[in-house]
Design brief:
There is one protein chain. By secondary structure, the protein is of the alpha/beta class. The chain has helices spanning about 5-20, 25-30, 35-45, 60-65, 70-75, 80-90, 105-110, 125-135, 160-170, 195-205, and strands at about 20-25, 50-55, 55-60, 95-100, 120-125, 145, 150-155, 160, 175-180, 180-185, 190, 205-215, 225-230, 235-240, 255-260. It folds into 2 domains: about 5-65, Arc Repressor Mutant, subunit A (Orthogonal Bundle), CATH 1.10.10; about 70-260, Rossmann fold, CATH 3.40.50.1360. Helix content is about 35%, strand content about 25%. A 7-stranded parallel β-sheet has the order 6-5-4-9-12-14-15. The chain has a 3-stranded antiparallel β-sheet with strand order 1-3-2. Strands 10-11-13 form a 3-stranded antiparallel β-sheet. Strand 5 (about 120-125), helix 8 and strand 6 form a beta-alpha-beta unit.
């Protein structure tokens, strides 16, 4: 039985509220309509302020202005984050000194770290440091963990501040693994929280290689604070192919895109 247009839009919003994002290809299958129909629905809903269209689908507009708590975000797009984490560990070499910033994608990435020898991990994420400490106790990898000091944000479970930045200046870091609230060709990598952004920015500045871990819902999205331009990113690990509309930007040719 065919679903009426208004019923379909309501169902799209229900799915959006539950998952935080929707994909065009999945909605096409769910409602047995054309991509054009779904994209038209999303455009109408965007005009009404219910969502924000992004590459391949849409996300909740609230995410653009205020990020949900860390606990809430652990359930959003989790499958994609797991895939990204598993793919990203191939970029860690034995003996590396790496920095990991905050976010639920980074937690999934940390969960996947194993069979690495003599690695040093610096992080300003409380959940990441806790998980990695347990992995170290279980001999999943060898090395050491350094939890950066500073001011604790209990809602986001992160550490930031001038002390955190000063500590990062003391180390020679091979690779910075950073997350994002949004990624666009115009404004580069961005995030929601100023203090966390400043730490991610410092990680970028002091590291030899910058690796961005992001799911498709962040592509073509701008959030409050700029972390860095895309030219400073060496590798992007994402659950989606390289965006077609980015092909016209010559400056992105040097970025290595890895699909999880």
């Amino acid at each position: 039985m065919a679903v009426l247009p208004e019923e379909r839009k309501n169902e799209i919003l229900k799915e959006l509220n539950k998952k935080g994002k929707v994909k065009v290809v999945e909605l096409v299958k769910q409602f047995n309509v054309s991509e054009e129909t779904i994209r038209r629905d999303l455009t109408i809903l965007e005009e009404k302020g219910h969502l924000k269209k992004v590459y391949g689908g849409a996300i909740k507009t609230v995410y653009l202005n205020e990020e949900p708590s860390f606990t809430h975000r652990t359930t959003v797009n989790q499958e994609a984050k797991v895939k990204i984490g598993k793919k990203a560990i191939d970029l860690i070499s034995n003996g590396d000194v790496i920095a990991i910033d905050v976010g639920t994608t980074m937690l999934e990435f940390a969960q996947c770290i194993e069979n690495k020898k003599d690695i040093t991990i610096l992080t300003n994420s409380l959940p990441v440091s806790s998980l990695l400490t347990e992995s170290l106790n279980q001999n999943k990898f060898t090395g050491q963990i350094l939890l950066l000091g500073g001011i604790v944000d209990p809602k986001q479970q992160s550490i930031s501040g001038s002390l955190t930045e000063q500590l990062l200046n003391q180390f020679n870091i091979d690779k910075a693994f950073i997350s994002a609230g949004g990624v666009s060709t115009q404004n580069g990598v961005s995030n929601y929280h100023l203090h966390e952004t400043l730490i991610s920015r410092k990680m970028v500045d002091v590291s030899k290689q910058v690796i961005l871990l992001t799911d498709y819902s962040k592509i073509c999205v701008d959030t409050f604070c700029k972390v860095c331009t895309l030219e400073k990113v060496d590798v992007i690990v994402c659950d989606h192919p390289f965006p077609e509309e980015w092909n016209e930007h010559a400056k992105l040719e040097e970025i290595k895109w890895i699909q999880a």
